[in-house]
Amino acid sequence: MSRLNNLIPDGTRDLLFSSCAVKNRVIERISSLFKSLGYSEVKTPSFEFFDVFTSKKEAIPIEDMFKLTDNKGRLIVLRPDCTQPIARVVATKFKDPVIPIKLYYNQNVFLMNPSQNGRRNEITQCGVELIGTNGLLSDIDIIITAIKTLKQFDLNFKIEIGDVGLFIEIVKVLNIDKYDAEKLRKLIERKNYAALNDLLKSLDRSEKEKQILEKLPQLFGGIEIFDECEKLTSNQNVLTKLSYIKTLYENLLELGLGDYISVDLGLVHHIDYYTGIVFRGYVEGIGEDILSGGRYDDLLEQYGTRLPATGFGINVDALTEFFIKTNKFKLEPQINSLIFCENNRFKEAYNLINKLREEGERCEMGLCPNLEEAVKYAKIKKIKKIYVVSNEISILEVENEKA
């Protein structure tokens, strides 16, 4: 048997030094924005009962969860999603809440991903949940919040907007079972045109009913997409959904946000609790969606409270990796000065370091055996000066190598 004590599990990683600093800065900036917009932080346990994530609709596939049992033999899981536990919290702990309820989170989620797809099994997410309101203004506001979140990092990004209700209404007309419906959803989501056409041909339905599904993954772009889609259907429920998305899109254009948004009517999320508008954010240079969200008006009812809701989450780890790769953040050294003690002048050295810290200087006690080693250490850590404490205190400027 191979030894695993020097390895980490697939889909995880160690994060060191400057990478931690970059990630912390990303989280701090996102959290600061959320707080400035009136959102309050919540945290939920890393472990939840399995039942939290099971309902009539399978929001997270059972096989994708990390499962274990507690000391009473009850099935629990590592948190695979942040929205459902927050829905549980609101439904069970918020009595006569002030509406809207505006919550944000910064938590890890755990999902079993195929080992070859490059995705992590553990990622950090920051996100918001806007609970208790629905309608056009709420949908506009949550998308604006998503745009503001990415815009503050000076990224080249685009948020694609769709509506899962379109797919739901079309499938109702087809009157197919949930297994074929899920196959269709996956093929539309992946924009697998060939396999989608093959599956549609195998269904015993009229060509008119199947035509819009065949075209759905191709309907992405700007305002012209709505006219194109309207020509493919006479279903009033589908047309009503289209009209709503178009109105939302036009309002965002009027607000001057056209550079940041586009339409994708084939956007059909894999998580089944979404009921209306859905959206994803993509950043140039990152090969996966960085932001994902939408409306989930029926989810809280699963936990005993009927409230509409919407929200989104951001993949902090993917954003951090991008910033590290592109050297987006110029990190200042954590320590400005080093205290080196000679001749056992411990008391004077600690008095000095306490004084400097009170004055706001970032300094640390030098633990090197001699001054030569202290200088080498300072250069490696890019520390600018050394206080040498001996019979008197002197300052040694350190010449750091230019990056």
In brief, what are we looking at here?
By secondary structure, this protein is an alpha+beta fold. The chain contains 12 helices and 16 strands.
The tally of beta strands, per DSSP, is: 16
Number of helices: 12
Helix content range of the residues, please?
25-40%
Distance between the termini: 45 Å
Give, in order, the helices and strands: HEEEEHEEHEHHHHEHHEEEEHEHEHEE
Structure description:
By secondary structure, this protein is of the alpha+beta class. Helix content is 37%, strand content 20%. The protein has twelve helices and 16 strands. The protein has helices at residues 17-36, 83-93, 136-151, 164-174, 178-189, 193-202, 207-215, 224-230, 236-254, 316-326, 346-358, 371-380; strands at 40-41, 47-49, 67-69, 75-78, 101-110, 122-131, 157-163, 220-221, 261-264, 277-283, 291-295, 309-315, 337-341, 363-365, 385-389, 393-397. A nine-stranded mixed beta sheet has the order 1-5-6-12-11-10-7-9-8. Strands 14-13-15-16 form a four-stranded mixed beta sheet, with helices on both faces. Strand 15 and strand 16 (393-397) form a beta hairpin. The longest helix is centred in the first third of the chain and has 20 residues, at 17-36. The two termini are 45 Å apart.
Topology:
Elements: H1 17-36, E1 40-41, E2 47-49, E3 67-69, E4 75-78, H2 83-93, E5 101-110, E6 122-131, H3 136-151, E7 157-163, H4 164-174, H5 178-189, H6 193-202, H7 207-215, E8 220-221, H8 224-230, H9 236-254, E9 261-264, E10 277-283, E11 291-295, E12 309-315, H10 316-326, E13 337-341, H11 346-358, E14 363-365, H12 371-380, E15 385-389, E16 393-397
Parallel strand pairs: 1-5, 7-9, 13-14, 13-15
Antiparallel strand pairs: 2-4, 3-4, 5-6, 6-12, 7-10, 8-9, 10-11, 11-12, 15-16
Helix pairs in contact: 1-10, 3-9, 4-7, 4-9, 5-6
